[in-house]
Amino acid sequence: MNYRLTLSLSLLLSCVLLFVTGCFATDKPLSKDPNITALQTVLEHQFTGPDPEFIEGSDNIEKLEQYYEKRYKPYFTEERYNSFISTSAYQYILVALNNDKQIKMDKVKVEKDEDTYTFKMTVLYGKEDSSQNSAEVTGRAKFNNEGKITSIQYLNDDGLSEKLSN
């Protein structure tokens, strides 16, 4: 009888440990490459929103500059940061805002090949209280030795800009 009790307790403890471990598991793979983590963060900022802070900043240039600086400046070289802000940073979120839609980065996969990081992500979009559609966005980025983005290009956005406009 003592053997059965020990076996039962061991099985119960194993089940509890498996449950607790599962509660702490994440859907996002943890990368040891800080450049991959930085790129994923930039993409999430660019393809998720608009949030209240962006909406407030869209009417106040000083607040918008602070918004961008907080989200993007740590990840870019000074030159690339200025170029990114003037050409790409607000592209998708602003179109979503102007068309009363939301966008959200759902999944992203980043791979490194020599000095280039390629990415493929799924972006969900639609009206806030309606069903979500998805688009696949691909691109590539490069980093300098200090871990700052020197180049980021979107190769294909699956028509996301046009889809947000409709």
Would you write up a description of this structure?
- The chain has 166 residues and is of the alpha+beta class.
- The chain has one domain: VirB8 protein (Nuclear Transport Factor 2, Chain: A).
- It contains seven helices and four strands, in the order ααααααββββα.
- A four-stranded antiparallel β-sheet has the order 1-2-3-4, covered by helices on one side.
- Strand 1 and strand 2 form a beta hairpin.
In the CATH hierarchy, the architecture is Roll
Q: What percentage of the residues does DSSP assign to strands (E)?
A: 25-35%
Helix share bin: 40-55%
User: What is the name of the CATH superfamily?
Assistant: VirB8 protein
Strand order of the largest sheet: 1-2-3-4
Cα-atom radius of gyration: 21 Å
General form: globular
How many H/I helical runs? 7
Q: What is the average of the pLDDT values?
A: 85
Task: Provide the low-confidence segments as ranges.
Answer: 5-29
Name the quaternary structure. single chain
How would you characterize the largest beta sheet? Answer: 4 strands, antiparallel
Q: How would you spell out the order of helices and strands?
A: HHHHHHEEEEH
Q: Tally the beta strands.
A: 4
Provide the CATH top-level class. Answer: Alpha Beta
